[in-house]
Amino acid sequence: MYEQKTLLEAYNAASIHLAGHGKRDVEVLKQAFAGIEGTISSDMYGSGAVIEDFQTEMAEVLGKEAAVFFPSGTMAQQIALRIWSDRKGLKTVAYHPLCHLEIHEQDGLKELHHIRPVLLADKDRLITLDDVRNIGEDIACLLLELPQREIGGQLPEYAELEAISAYCREQGIILHLDGARLFEVLPYYGKTAAEVCALFDSVYISLYKGIGGIAGAILAGSEEFTEESKIWKRRHGGDLISLYPYILPAQVYFRQRAGKMGQYYEEAKELAALFNGCDRTATLPEIPVSNMFHVHFALSKAQVEPVLIRISEQTSVALAARLKETGPDSCSYELNIGDLYSGIPKAKLKEAFELLDRLLQEA
Amino acid sequence: MYEQKTLLEAYNAASIHLAGHGKRDVEVLKQAFAGIEGTISSDMYGSGAVIEDFQTEMAEVLGKEAAVFFPSGTMAQQIALRIWSDRKGLKTVAYHPLCHLEIHEQDGLKELHHIRPVLLADKDRLITLDDVRNIGEDIACLLLELPQREIGGQLPEYAELEAISAYCREQGIILHLDGARLFEVLPYYGKTAAEVCALFDSVYISLYKGIGGIAGAILAGSEEFTEESKIWKRRHGGDLISLYPYILPAQVYFRQRAGKMGQYYEEAKELAALFNGCDRTATLPEIPVSNMFHVHFALSKAQVEPVLIRISEQTSVALAARLKETGPDSCSYELNIGDLYSGIPKAKLKEAFELLDRLLQEA
Fold first, then answer.
1. Which terminus of chain A, N or C, has less C-beta within 10 A?
2. Between B25, B37, B244, which is nearest A40 by CB?
3. What is the ipTM of this complex?
4. Membrane-spanning residues where (chains A, B) (predicted)?
């Protein structure tokens, strides 16, 4: 009896993937370490050249006084908000309803730090200056995420961002950047990381999104802020004896990929246009402003899954590993362009998208 | 002008080290990964064969229903105490005054979890059944550390441990094991890990002490307990996208070294006897009960440092990387036996200890 493959199985079996840098496997680690001298010593509880040099490098890139390496952004950002709340003597912060802290962290901010978030804007749009003007209560800190991942990676216009920053400074509101994908938006803004970060008091960046490291994050700001963050890092259990298995690959892949974000951005626009050319398919944003976008189908998950499985089996091109149900007749998924996309023959793409268009019409 | 080396510089320059498994450097990582298939996939946020298989293996070794891999013991243990405190509706736990949570974690337990510790026993001795009987207030949980690291790695007699466990069960006090060095004490107790763990409701073990992994910890207990710990792991920022750079070496080194703890223990006794044969030198415990002990000198740090530097320069044997001042005329340091010790020629040891004895007499 023939057993239908699941979408994830079909994805894993396919030889061509649109998104990402490749598999997250042991080989990635081996490759990252292959070029590194065996005699280099581990960091030790936050000290040592391996961690200190990378922190200095990142502080310079971000234009901040100092930077601290964290095992995760979850830890780094809760700590940033805790420090600012303590500084202001105010247990209230503001962020987007789909902020990572609100939907992906099991309420760590509330359960561990007893900080209450004020949710700004609607779920399906960006925070505007007007939203910030109309908070209506005192907040210690405003967190902005660039790009806003859960709505396809949308971005405010740069002038709006500058206006929000100026308003916060005027009002004594601390501004924190969730820059998990900061490097990914620099080509659209036409700014350096330091220029964008200058608008913020503190900044978090991820080292495994567009950069493609193994895991890890950087929290940057004033020396006073980062020193305090190290105390909280110890409290959270993040001041590990050795973080070098994350730091060294982060350094390798940062140097390899930070300069390729413009390429990924152009490729994302090209790929989004291919999706938008298909029946009952639309990307969000329509024209990407970074390496990422969401693909929305005006068909149920149960209708789209067999289409994507058939495409991967017939063309070897895997479009998605999983779909998210967004309604009875709609579903979506996220795409992040990385190193893989440029290696895909254009004829293969054409074949896959012609088939997608046809099968969606028939679905 | 001749510049005197510091003790740490002399230690690093010496070719023979008494303690540990060797350098914590990039080579250790490369070696751990050399024997592992490149195609093995990373864990993903706590899922995947890499993490699940190791957790199952550790649960079996510890004789518990389930086990969870954590990036650090700091995180694992705060979470264990939080879960038990919540379960009992009681924000009080008891532990030794030199417990890791009390002296090495920047008060994370208090600052993040608002749990108040009751300190049992004096700093320089173990917790006894009498101490537990006389707490005089309700506690949710008692934490016992085996061996008690900060006092040289001392251990209660097994019968005492059984009596404390029975008393806690009788009284409805949860018993948690800080087993950072659990495998290291099994040869002395003549028990399996599961036998010792059966006395406890929850257990933490470290994967980089005697085991010699890169970093990481296991928290084990009932399925209900470990499932709750995963929620807190996410809240703490410890549910990383990828923990495999720690898990795979932990598995490699666990299999390599868990069976060598008896050898390390015998070697620790041999080495302690060599120290105890020297002038103004005593080990704590006098006869080790694990792979570790502390060396105490009845001389000031300023007097002992040049002695140790001279020994390392003259014999290539480094006895200590640093000394802790314990009084105006006393200092000490910790020794943990690992793979290196058995490779040291006995004649070298004899030469180093004869010189130590002579120089301390002259100091």
1. N
2. B25
3. 0.97
4. none
